[in-house]
Amino acid sequence: MAILIDLRSDTITRLTREDLDNIDVMRICDSGFDVDPYVAELEESCARLFGKESAIFLSSGTLSNQIALRCLAQVGEEVITGAGYHIDFFESSQIASCSGIVLNAVRTTDGILRLPDIEAAIDEKARWSSMYAEPRVVAVENSVNTYGGAIFPLDELTAIARFCRERGLYLYMDGARLLNSCAATGVQPDVYAAGCDLISLCFSKGLGAPFGSILVGDSRHITKARKYRKWYGGAMHQAGLMAAIALRRLPHWKLRLTEDNDNARRLSEWLDPSWNQPYRTQTNMVFLRTRDASRLVRELVLAGVLAVAWTKDLVRFVTSSVVDEIAIRTAASIINRFAPLAMDADVRGARVSAGGIP
Ligand SMILES: Cc1ncc(COP(=O)(O)O)c(C=O)c1O
Q: Cα–Cα distance between 92 and 133 in angstroms, integer?
């Protein structure tokens, strides 16, 4: 097999020699005892970027989600969120077992949890009775992974934030890929963050750092988050090693993620029109609906394209710094060879198609 174009995720990026050479290893200390300069600078930079008081460096987006909800809600209280958001799709067991919090995951048509959805989720139960779980948090995601990287519209978020303030609810944003949305819309991170009590961001996705996530908010919540980071075993010792790379990548977010968004748009445009693309590509993802996602993925691997069978009938392609426009052009032409799969499960009869590639 001559080529392998990796579109499985934006987490598959590799470290560069430069990343390592630029770390002043002598500055790194044990964050358990001392203030690591790289960690401190990263936390301060992120607090500034999001216009918040404070930030905490965490090992993963999952840990950010877990700690954020743990900080904002008590055992037995309810988090209203979108069905399919990461905290529901992948983390419902963890939330139940680590925090004893109840998820009320609302199904939406386009992945955007709107104010009427939240009001309905509250009003569908007689909340004045103490029998029911008490809503405490609204949790949104931006961009929305399971809905093709959809951008959470700012006006919807602003309406939700106002409602949360009026009703004494907290608002959390899982912003693992928020900067993809910012790059696409031109909306600055602090504008999205303004109405949120806590907001997270991953460094290990499009930014290309090997790991890490940041959780930002006011000092009261971040102080609590420091306690839970310790409780959950997430307090790392020489964390500066990882923070240094995230710190180096962060200032370049706009250029870096615009490139990924552009490449995903190209892929979407260059795919044969017979493919069923269930979501309009808004950031760095393209989804295809097919009868047998695992089978399509197996065939694509043999042809040189790596993708993920997201569900039984959805295949996900994600752009990252490991692919450029030329790789995307090649990937589109390879994927288009299997265009009959859009309707038909028989891969072997695939015709060769130039698709929409100019
Ligand atoms: C929206 C979203 N939130 C959270 C996470 C979890 O991040 P991590 O893999 O760093 O735990 C992911 C991972 O892909 C994600 O897509």
A: 16
What residue type is assigned to position 18 of the chain? Answer: E
Distance of CA 201 from the midpoint of ligand 1 (Å): 9
- Whether ligand 1 lies within 6 angstroms of the CB of 283 is answered as no
Q: Tell me, what's the pLDDT at 347? A: 40
Q: For residue 126, what pLDDT is reported?
A: 85
Peptide bond into 143 cis (omega under 30): yes
- Atom 9 of ligand 1, residue of closest alpha carbon: 61
The beta strands (E) that lie in the chain are given as 5-6, 54-58, 78-82, 102-106, 135-141, 170-174, 198-202, 213-217, 285-289, 305-306, 308-309, 314-318
State which of 13, 67, 95, 145 you would mutate to test the pocket of ligand 1, scoring each by most atoms of that ligand within 8 A of its C-beta: 145
Whether the CB of 141 sits within 6 Å of ligand 1: yes
Environment class of 182 (CB within 10 Å of its CB; exposed 0-12, middle 13-18, buried 19+)? buried
Per the CB < 8 A criterion, the answer to whether 202 and 178 are in contact is no
Q: Quote the pLDDT of residue 348.
A: 39
Strand partners, 212: none
Query: Is the CB of 86 within 6 Å of ligand 1?
Result: yes
Torsion of CA 327, 332, 333, 335, to 10 degrees: 120
Q: 61 C-alpha vs ligand 1 centroid, how far in Å?
A: 5
Please tell me if the CB atom of residue 174 comes closer than 6 angstroms to any atom of ligand 1: yes
Question: Does the beta carbon of 31 lie inside 6 Å of ligand 1?
Answer: no
Looking at residue 307, its amino acid is A
Positions in the chain short of pLDDT 70: 1-2, 341, 343-358
**Predicted local distance difference test score (pLDDT) of residue 263:** 98
Q: What is the pLDDT of residue 127?
A: 84
Binding site membership of 206 for ligand 1 (Cβ less than 6 Å): no
Q: What is the C-alpha to C-alpha distance for residues 9 and 11, in angstroms, rounded to an integer? A: 5
